[in-house]
Design goal:
The chain has 250 residues and is an alpha/beta fold. The chain has helices at residues 13-23, 49-54, 66-75, 137-143, 162-167, 195-203, 233-249; strands at 37-41, 58-62, 82-85, 88-90, 96-102, 126-136, 153-156, 178-184, 207-217, 223-231. The strands form two sheets. Strands 3-2-1-7-8-10-9 form a seven-stranded mixed sheet.
């Protein structure tokens, strides 16, 4: 959605530790202290790999752009608990999409066209378009034999298509305790999902907003946010009981 949000963290361990203690204790990433693993859709080159390592997490990264994916794999060479997959995650399997590549190392790339994005990041534009096939997150999990019990958080940064990702994961959303997403309350991309769209969909699956952090504002109105949703207490208890029953049956 934006030109660059994640901080590059390539300093010494001591400085890295101070960074996390200062920046993530109560911020949008604080929930990572409570999870075992993350599925991150829209990986780019894996900026957050140091943060995930700090929280001792298992991580699945998903990135669709071939050359960015190659860089992601290189960046993860020294992170044995973090694995990358090259897919475009949407709400349909095998549907062909025109995928627009942005000039900021692919960070603002999307299957959608830019709209009011330029009002905040005027230097960002699309350089070229490639053709990619989509896949549902549920289908990806099955194809790659991913053990969902290891991953209880979903993080999305897919430039306006986050609702499509959720729809394609509808049958496995109950596996997640937390969902973190970027979202705007205006049309950053043409026909993109907005905060209210995500709220309505996730409410049907018993997820409630836990924290919202604004990271950009448009002069003529509208803002972009990082939003963390948490599964309701009743649903967490229900899933825990279901897991205990399944374990007892094995």
């Amino acid at each position: 959605m934006k030109a660059s949000k994640s901080k590059q963290i390539k300093s010494l361990p001591g400085k890295l530790d101070r960074f996390f203690k200062r920046g993530f204790k109560r911020g949008p990433h604080a929930f990572l202290r409570k999870v075992a693993g993350v599925i991150h859709v829209g990986a780019n080159d894996g900026d957050e790999r140091f943060m995930y390592q700090h929280y001792d997490l298992d991580v699945i990264w998903i990135e669709p752009i071939p050359e960015v994916f190659e860089q992601l794999e290189k960046n993860l060479e020294n992170f044995p608990r973090q694995k990358a997959y090259k897919y475009l995650v949407t709400d349909e399997d095998a549907r062909e999409y025109n995928f627009n590549i942005a000039n900021n190392n692919g960070q603002s790339s999307s299957i959608l066209d830019l709209d009011l994005h330029k009002d905040i990041w005027s230097d960002i534009h699309f350089e070229r378009t490639i053709t990619l096939n989509g896949i549902k997150l549920k289908s990806l999990v099955e194809a790659e034999n991913i053990e969902m019990k290891k991953y209880d958080a979903l993080i999305m940064d897919t430039q306006g298509t986050e609702l499509l990702v959720l729809k394609g994961a509808e049958n496995i959303l109950d596996k997640f305790q937390y969902i973190k997403t970027e979202a705007a309350d205006f049309e950053v991309y043409k026909d993109c999902c907005q905060v209210t769209d995500l709220e309505k969909f996730l409410a049907k699956h018993d997820f409630k907003e836990k924290i919202r952090t604004k990271f950009a504002t448009r002069e003529d109105g509208g803002s972009c946010y990082d939003i963390v949703y948490q599964k309701s207490s009743w649903q967490r208890l229900k899933n825990k009981f279901k897991g205990e029953v399944e374990a007892a049956d094995e």
